[in-house]
Amino acid sequence: MADRHFRSLFRALHLRREQWTFLLMALLCVSVIVGTALWTRQAEFARVTPTPPVSGDISAAQLLQQSLDSAQTATPAPTVSPTVRSVTTPLESMTLLRPFDNTRMRQSSATGLWALHDAADYAGVEGAKVSAMADGTVINCADSGVFGAYAEIDHGGVLVRYANLSMLYAIRAGDPVRAGQTIGFIGRTMPEECDLPAHLHLRIVVGNTAVDPEKVLQNGIFPDP
Fold it and tell me: 26-72, pLDDT tens digit by residue?
């Protein structure tokens, strides 16, 4: 009877030991899981560098500076300089000999031919230098012909014919010229006007229309082409 009671008690104690072992193992697992989670969370917080607290004024200044530093300065658009259309006088002294007139035909006393005088004649001493009125490019030039010795220069869309010259001076078609550059000398080589004193026959064409050189010289600029 005592032996049976002892065996029952042993079995009960053994059963309780297994239960305690299971509970201890369960608690150990839970502790490991919780500890791992807490360590991982702490490591994540450690990687974040906290921003030190600043006052409202300093924060605004920092934001403004960051905005300025990150902004890309736009490249200003190139400024387009207006075309310089000012003119210089082709002769040192401009004395009008015969005015511009594109309203009626005139008969040349030298050749008897009728033609419009859509140019202006400026008197001068034979051999006096003739200068370019502005920068440009020589389009045509010749030592003789209907216009005598002459040069046609494109001044940025304005075509100017310097005619009745005695000779040209070191220019040819395609050459660039500068304002005030000598292009020739006054003469009497134009057949229709050889009955007149030595002069410069000046014709200015803007947009296929001849304009009065006297008005251009008075204004000091070429009309827009």
Answer: 677 666 676 666 666 665 544 544 444 544 445 555 655 665 565 55
Q: Are the C-beta atoms of residues 159 and 195 closer than 8 Å to each other? A: no
Q: How far apart are the first and last CA of the chain?
A: 137
Positive/negative CA dihedral, 205, 210, 211, 216? positive
Residue type at position 167: M
Full DSSP string of the chain = -HHHHHHHHHHHHHHHHHHHHHHHHHHHHHHHHHHHHHHHHHHHHHHS-PPPP--HHHHHHHHHHHHHHHSPPPPPPPP-PPP--B---SSSS-EEEE--EEEEEEE-TTT--EEEE-SEEEE--TT-EEE-SSSEEEEEEESSSTTSEEEEEESSSEEEEEEEEEEE-S--TT-EE-TT-EEEEEB---GGGTTSPSEEEEEEEETTEEE-HHHHHHHTBPPP-
CA atoms lying within 13 Å on the CB side of residue 196 = 23
- Give the contacts of 137 (CB within 8 A, at least 6 positions apart): 153, 154, 174, 175, 176, 177
Is the whole-model pTM more than 0.70? no
